[in-house]
Amino acid sequence: MEFNTVDGVVEIEPQRDGSTFSSNGMLLEVGSDLWLEIDGRKYKAHATKVGDVWWVHIQGHTMRFELIEPGAAGADDDGGMVAPMPGKILEVMAEVGQEVKTGQTLMIMEAMKMEHKITANQDGIIQEILFQVGDQVEQGAQLLNIE
Amino acid sequence: MEFNTVDGVVEIEPQRDGSTFSSNGMLLEVGSDLWLEIDGRKYKAHATKVGDVWWVHIQGHTMRFELIEPGAAGADDDGGMVAPMPGKILEVMAEVGQEVKTGQTLMIMEAMKMEHKITANQDGIIQEILFQVGDQVEQGAQLLNIE
Amino acid sequence: MLKRVLVANRGEIACRILRACREAEIEGVAIFAANDSGTLFTELADISIQLDGEGLAETYLNQQQIIEIAQQNGCDSIHPGFGFLSERADFAQAVIDAGLIWIGPSPTAITQMGDKMTARITMRAAGVPVIPGEEVEGGLEQVLALAPSVGYPLLLKATSGGGGKGMRAVHDAADLESEAKAAMREALNAFGDDRIYIERLLVGSRHIEIQILADQHGRTIHLGERECSVQRRHQKVFEESPSIALDSELREQMGEAACEAARAVSFEGAGTVEFLLTPKGEFFFLEMNTRIQVEHPVTEMVTGVDLVREQLRIAAGEPMSCGPLSMRGHAIEVRLYAEDPANNFLPAIGKLQIFKPPTGPGVRFDTGVRQGDEVTPNYDPMLAKLIVWAPSREEALLRMGRALDEFVVLGCVTNIRFLRELCDHKDVVDGWTTTDMIDRLWPDGWAPDQNSIITDAGLLIASSCEAAGFGKQLSTKSSEHISPFTTLNRRFP
Amino acid sequence: MLKRVLVANRGEIACRILRACREAEIEGVAIFAANDSGTLFTELADISIQLDGEGLAETYLNQQQIIEIAQQNGCDSIHPGFGFLSERADFAQAVIDAGLIWIGPSPTAITQMGDKMTARITMRAAGVPVIPGEEVEGGLEQVLALAPSVGYPLLLKATSGGGGKGMRAVHDAADLESEAKAAMREALNAFGDDRIYIERLLVGSRHIEIQILADQHGRTIHLGERECSVQRRHQKVFEESPSIALDSELREQMGEAACEAARAVSFEGAGTVEFLLTPKGEFFFLEMNTRIQVEHPVTEMVTGVDLVREQLRIAAGEPMSCGPLSMRGHAIEVRLYAEDPANNFLPAIGKLQIFKPPTGPGVRFDTGVRQGDEVTPNYDPMLAKLIVWAPSREEALLRMGRALDEFVVLGCVTNIRFLRELCDHKDVVDGWTTTDMIDRLWPDGWAPDQNSIITDAGLLIASSCEAAGFGKQLSTKSSEHISPFTTLNRRFP
Predict the structure, then answer these.
(1) pTM of the predicted model, to two decimals?
(2) Are residues A81 and A57 both part of a single domain?
(3) Option in A32, A40, A44 nearest C43 (CB)
(4) Which ranges of C73-169 would DSSP assign to H, the alpha helix?
(5) Owning domain of residue B8
(6) ipTM score here?
(7) Domain containing C473: what range?
(8) How many CB atoms are located within 10 Å of the residue C1 CB?
């Protein structure tokens, strides 16, 4: 099974024995609740799946792992930059054809009463800018394309 | 629809309009939550069904209503007396053939570390006594029969 | 400092102690019977060990097994909580003999206070007033013989008792024999000791108890009183601090008597000295509980002292951290029981399908259960405690009412509505709380004060939800929970 | 006494006020925008009225509509909470003109304090020390012209501002123009007023604020300080009382200065005077908030005063009920934000699939949301506040750590882990909390301190749950929530 994580793509195939799963010497009991056993100690865990993302809580830590569905398009970034949440475009600071570097601010949008910068997620040349100043954008809307 | 309540059997057929139900001038909106409207004020309600019993919470009050399934055997008491919870029989204070009156103590059982009296739920003659002192009884086990 | 504590208890109080351990940076080890697997207190522990065996005697009361687990898991100490082994001197001694620290007073102090008769005699000797009554050495015959000299109404109490078990009020000589038998049987089952004794039943009295702390550095202090007069079946349901019946002078008198009682047995740790306060203002020693008390949070909220944390300090040989007594505002605790108050408080069971405790200002919630948990008949039906603090008693009552109105529990019958009505009841508001008040106010049993609008609303909700198929995924099989309406009289006699 | 209060707010603070109303036996009327339908505060109100319109301006900021609703529903008063209309003198005036009681200070006091420049001038006149800086009357040009005389680093602040909106730190002259533009734009959007002013940025200072109460009977008192130095994006995340930096002498000095500030504008009700306390021990007036403050619970827990209840009393013309200042123990509040601390605290949205707040001793939880609620981008991302009290600061930090470890939120990113690490951070434990500490400690942004065992455990849990089909009924459609991993850099610059 493959997951997108903050450290990149990770593959894991836990061993299964009935309702008990294991890997790296850790055991997980999957019943109506989740109990993880490490070195003889048991820890309560919580998990829920939202879309393709598994949310996990264990020992005060919350993590998210995006399941990469086999056969689905790679989760790798393909240069499309989308709005992280609904909001309004306040400034557009780049032009089509412009060369940009990773981290460079390309747009400013307002959401949740705060301003947020939209920055380039790769080096490249801007192919498209899909919104103008003042536009309302939906969550997930593609804002620009870099190639 | 018929319910067994603490005040006896009650029949109610609320009017339905989409997800809104009404009776006695009250409106109930059944969505992912429950909101009851009385005289223009809205109150949050909670409900859940366990077996045939609807548990309802509204304005600090908790109520239970047992649905009488159409065609099912009447929920009326038929003289069988069953254990309200698992426990142990401590004393049997009646004999087969004995005449008993409503409210008379027939058995004492122990459950949850306390003693509880099992009392006659009707006047009549004891037909059967199904357990002896020292027996463990399951929840719902028939203890005696009165006719 | 302690390093690793085994908590020899379960449920709400185990959670309380395990949280205190975590906050003190001490590891907490839970032990649990198979039927407690996965419950909240096992989750809050650093290490949870399953007990072998079935039933109380083989699990939570199994001294040898518990001590072995402590030793095998590197514990340096055992906290007994309340109930179970908390007042068993032989267990305290066995813990000490095993080289572990016993978080509680010495076995001698437990013995002197645990045997209610010895305690009476010790207190009489120390000049603390005791209730008129008779100590009984023999069995049923002696009880029957001595009762007339005490007079009616009288109270039969288990010599090794506590928590209302084995306690019976007798108002009429005709009931004496059957009640004495029942008390002895309950006492035997609960404490393995069927001895009972007889006390005068002081009608109209208040139950006032004084919280005590004593460390190994020679300091014995009291932390004011709790009033726990509102009781049903001799078990407290509503507790508060301070008591409306005490002024600072009486508080000091009773506090000093309580410290005297503690010193008389060289007490160490947290304990409670219980008194009856009569309408005339006399107070009598009832008993001393040589352990943390269910209702300790009201004292914590009023005095600002963390009693369980102080227990850990004292057991480790550290001086207690609290300064001079400073009481502020008013705290009330109510006990959430799985029981049917409209059916003579008969214990109830069921799955907590919906369990939404209140939150917000001044609200503390000490729970042993969560939504989705199953309430079984295996253990005490107390599930949780709701505690509020407010600047004044009037505000605390209103806050408790608000909190109880927000509290939703479906799937298991509880006493929430009963507690809610108590908060509004004139006698409670006026402070006329006495130990016999529930019997006095509801001689024929309590029933909810529910108007027809609420009932109609409930029926509309039930029928509409049925018609709409609301929450269908939540319903469980019919066989799991028996209908409460067909098996019992509405009023359990 | 008030009879029916309209609460012109939403979320957590509306819940707080509505509960206070219930506890004061006053009816509470909630108003809500369509997208707040069914949320917790509408449930806690006696009456809930839906606002017409969309967007803030047509709903929660719609003065006329709100006053009409109050009148149509028989309200005698309006409580504005914080944010929204709470510091709008024109609204306060309109409320009064409509014959209703405004639960807050007079419009004049709001004006004098709300305009940050006027406040600076008023305070200077009253002898309260203010931060070196420049009031700006004109627009961008004047800002650019006056900045050099203040010197760098400097702070641009919205004249009508609050809550960090329209506030920008400028460390280098090169950034001045773009930052000034951004600040003015944010100020315009947030407050309908794009004026900003310039202050010296006092590096290494603490944010200390004094809680004030003043009634109509001539009494103006302070309730000690709160330290709110730990801030991100100029918004507080971690607040405590008392401050480690104050002794009783400095507390009295600052308290007296705060009372002086309040008296200078004939203040009435609950308010907060904010100061910067420099490493040298000088303190400067920052601003006065003429309303209840987000972090008011820490004062409540330390002083035992119910501030919202006192607001209701004062507005009704009653004398405040609190006695002389008595501070006990230590309280800490953390703010639960729907935001990603590992991504420059960018606000987050999502459905609270699992939302399990902690409970137990010393824990207070003031929330605006419940499990199952949807966090939307429409409003401020603050969801709830977790407050703990303990006898000492050290114990309070440990208790907060325990509570945060118990707190489970899945389905929406929150700052829980960031707050948890703060509790253990050496600078916080030692009390070296300053307003620039987050930038100082994590100049390249914060990332969770997570060892590989935790990550491996997380992956095992995710993969096993996937393989076992765990909790399938809970998953929602993929389109509802966009993956957070593909759209943004891990470190938002």
Answers:
(1) 0.86
(2) no
(3) A44
(4) 89-97, 107-114, 116-125, 140-150
(5) 2-68
(6) 0.84
(7) 459-489
(8) 11
